[in-house]
């Protein structure tokens, strides 16, 4: 079975946003409130002042989404733009983010990523043990990290 970006999104809790600041310093930060559909990938700025500042200086980004137990995911590479609260584009993009955020997290801006390329992410175990299926990878991950499914 082919692993799609939709599969990755369904099984990822966080996404990881990689940016670079005005001095060329890279940074990766977790983002808890995000949404993907066929037209867009958007991230809520709830506590992302460093990411917002970096994107304004250098809009090239990479977003990683990983199903940690199946040990695979995708990275989304492209350009990002900051949509300010009160603009029409913000209002178009924010509804699914507000649904996830609820009343606990105020959304200051929306980071819209224009995805230009999607690439798979695979843990080395997928290359060393190609005969294992996703369930076997998940079972071994849970065993290694001492977690159990509910």
Which series of helices and strands comes N to C? HEEEEHEEHHEHH
Unreliable stretches (pLDDT < 50, length at least 5) are: none
Query: What is the count of helical runs?
Result: 6
> How would you sum up the major sheet?
7 strands, antiparallel
Count up the domains.
Answer: 1
In CATH terms, the superfamily is Electron Transport, Fmn-binding Protein, Chain A
Principal-axis shape equals globular
Helix proportion range: 25-40%
Q: Care to describe what's here?
A:
The chain has a single domain (5-122), classed as Electron Transport, Fmn-binding Protein, Chain A (Pnp Oxidase, Chain A, Roll), CATH 2.30.110.10. 31% of the residues lie in helices and 37% in strands. It contains six helices and seven strands. It has a seven-stranded antiparallel beta sheet, with helices on both faces. The protein is globular, with a radius of gyration of 17 Å. The two termini are 24 Å apart. The mean pLDDT is 92.
């Amino acid at each position: 079975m082919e692993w799609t970006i939709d599969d990755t999104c369904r099984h990822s809790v966080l996404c990881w946003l990689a940016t670079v600041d005005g001095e060329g310093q890279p940074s990766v930060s977790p983002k808890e409130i995000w949404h993907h559909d066929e037209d867009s990938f958007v991230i809520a700025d709830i506590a992302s002042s460093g990411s917002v500042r970096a994107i304004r200086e250098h809009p090239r980004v990479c977003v990683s989404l990983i199903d940690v137990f199946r040990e695979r995911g995708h990275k989304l590479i492209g350009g990002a733009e900051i949509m300010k609260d009160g603009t029409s584009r913000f209002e178009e993009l924010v509804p699914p983010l507000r649904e996830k955020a609820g009343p606990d997290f105020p959304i200051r801006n929306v980071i819209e990523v224009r995805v230009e390329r999607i690439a798979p992410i695979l843990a080395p175990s997928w290359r060393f043990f190609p005969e294992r299926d996703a369930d076997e990878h998940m079972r071994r991950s849970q065993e290694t990290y001492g977690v159990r499914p509910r």
